[in-house]
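sry for the spam today, last one i promise. struct tokens for design, 497 residues
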């Protein structure tokens, strides 16, 4: 078997908003590949677009990716031998490389004003042409251009795309991508404020940081040929490029975008990692879910822990086909991973949701609850409707719900009095041992077991749906159960007959 060489890979988000699923998946795939090959995973910030920069976004990204279970060997917060890892701190590095491209004839200074460029763009669109730079500054004498630039005349630096021929770039998932050079634009590399554009900065960073594989979003496919041009203009070895599949809306129609977040929120979902944590999703489940949106191991395995993924992930399993975001599948995975947690870990995971809802949490009771409530949880915040009653002083049931099916309020009162008599005999014993006698009681009184137990459930839990009744009563304790049954009787006795 051929040994895979250690890979150096990176995730390089822009701090322009909350961390969303696509960034999480790019980070995950890079992390898995680095760990599997014994290589290095790098966290780099592409923050040169200052107009879209959002304060606090960097900290949120680090926190969200750590929440997923990812860590990195080098990066903005941990340092490393190839820093700085923040692009705004590498301004002079990019300018030096831009000068090298100018000197070799692969780039040039452009002095066109924004007004002129806007006018040309409108003229081209009126002629139904694709807007692009018209090449006005391509042919300025290099010495004159250098003099004008050095005299502080406002300018940018553009890449000089060959006027003829074509370029073939290679994507591991899609094979050779050939584009006629005439179809490419002379894109800006350095803006007038001296900051580099992604097209130059990312290629320089990948080279200087010795990146071997670039796993990134497919939104970079249109400019991939330009990136190949830049790398080859320097004569560098090209990393392996892998453009991952597009995320589609849940409907499968159209690309998923941040703009869809408000409509998803109506259904209790989100594409942002920080929201997923607040909505009660486990990081293990989110990792499992996004790993399988664009990658597969075989046609039947669906449950993966992070260790499983590190062992089994491979680039050959990646699929370029668009992947529709399926939140029902996320719920499914979350249920699987909840049931895979130890009792202690599950209790620890649900506790913050109970506290945030205002409950004072009894640790012993919380641990006792987990085995009977685990199967009912889809998200961690389901602990509130399914288990909040364990921590309430009073449950305040709806009186009408205390009346058994096809029974009167008086019938229900009679049932609850007899139930109290039976439970009193079981003081000091496990309450679950009272179940057979209460089943016999229902038959003796001429009612169905479902009618009697249904009244008890509402009285004890305050709700019509709950975890197993007698196991719940055991955890609540006889004293509290008795008190709640007596309060239910009081409510029923006040009810109009």
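last one done:
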């Amino acid at each position: 078997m051929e040994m895979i060489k250690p890979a150096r890979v990176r995730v390089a988000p822009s701090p322009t908003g909350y961390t969303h699923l696509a960034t999480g998946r790019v980070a995950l795939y890079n992390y898995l590949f680095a760990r599997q090959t014994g290589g290095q995973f790098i966290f780099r910030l592409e923050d040169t677009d200052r107009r879209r920069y959002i304060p606090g976004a960097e900290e949120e990204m680090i926190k969200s990716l750590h929440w997923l279970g990812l860590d990195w060997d080098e990066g903005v917060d941990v340092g490393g031998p190839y820093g700085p890892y923040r692009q705004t701190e590498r301004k002079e590095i990019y300018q030096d490389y831009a000068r090298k491209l100018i000197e070799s004839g692969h780039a040039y200074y452009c002095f066109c004003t924004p007004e002129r460029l806007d006018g040309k763009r409108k003229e081209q669109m009126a002629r139904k042409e694709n807007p692009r730079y018209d090449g006005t500054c391509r042919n300025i004498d290099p010495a004159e251009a250098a003099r004008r630039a050095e005299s502080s005349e406002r300018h940018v630096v553009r890449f000089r795309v060959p006027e003829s021929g074509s370029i073939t770039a290679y994507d591991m998932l899609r094979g050779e991508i050939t584009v006629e050079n005439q179809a490419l634009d002379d894109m800006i590399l350095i803006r007038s404020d001296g900051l580099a554009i992604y097209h130059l900065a990312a290629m320089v960073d990948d080279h200087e940081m010795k990146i071997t594989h670039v796993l990134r979003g497919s939104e970079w496919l249109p400019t991939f040929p330009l990136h190949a041009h830049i790398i080859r203009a320097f004569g560098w070895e090209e990393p392996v490029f892998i453009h991952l599949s597009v995320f589609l809306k849940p409907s499968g129609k159209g690309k998923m975008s941040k703009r869809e977040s408000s409509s998803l929120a109506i259904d209790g979902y989100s594409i942002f990692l920080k929201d997923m944590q607040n909505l009660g999703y486990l990081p293990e489940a989110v990792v499992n879910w996004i790993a399988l949106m664009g990658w597969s191991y075989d046609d039947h395995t669906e449950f993966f822990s992070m260790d499983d993924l590190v062992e089994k992930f491979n680039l050959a399993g990646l699929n370029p086909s668009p992947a529709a975001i399926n939140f029902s599948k996320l719920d499914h995975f979350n249920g699987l991973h909840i049931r895979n947690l130890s009792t202690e870990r599950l209790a620890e995971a649900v506790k913050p949701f109970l506290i945030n809802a205002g409950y004072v949490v009894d640790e012993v009771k919380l641990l006792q609850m987990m085995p009977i409530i685990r199967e009912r949880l889809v998200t961690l915040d389901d602990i509130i409707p399914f288990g909040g009653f364990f921590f309430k002083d009073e449950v305040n049931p709806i009186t009408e719900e205390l009346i058994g099916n096809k029974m009167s309020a008086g019938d229900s009162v009679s049932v609850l009095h007899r139930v109290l008599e039976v439970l009193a005999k079981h003081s000091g014993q496990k309450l679950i041992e009272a179940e057979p006698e209460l089943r016999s009681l229902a038959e003796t009184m001429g009612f169905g077991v479902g009618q009697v137990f249904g009244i008890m459930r509402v009285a004890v839990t305050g709700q019509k749906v709950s975890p197993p009744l007698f196991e719940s009563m055991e955890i609540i304790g006889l004293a509290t159960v008795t008190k709640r049954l007596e309060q239910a009787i009081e409510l029923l006795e006040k009810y109009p007959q």
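The mean pLDDT is 93. ok im logging off now
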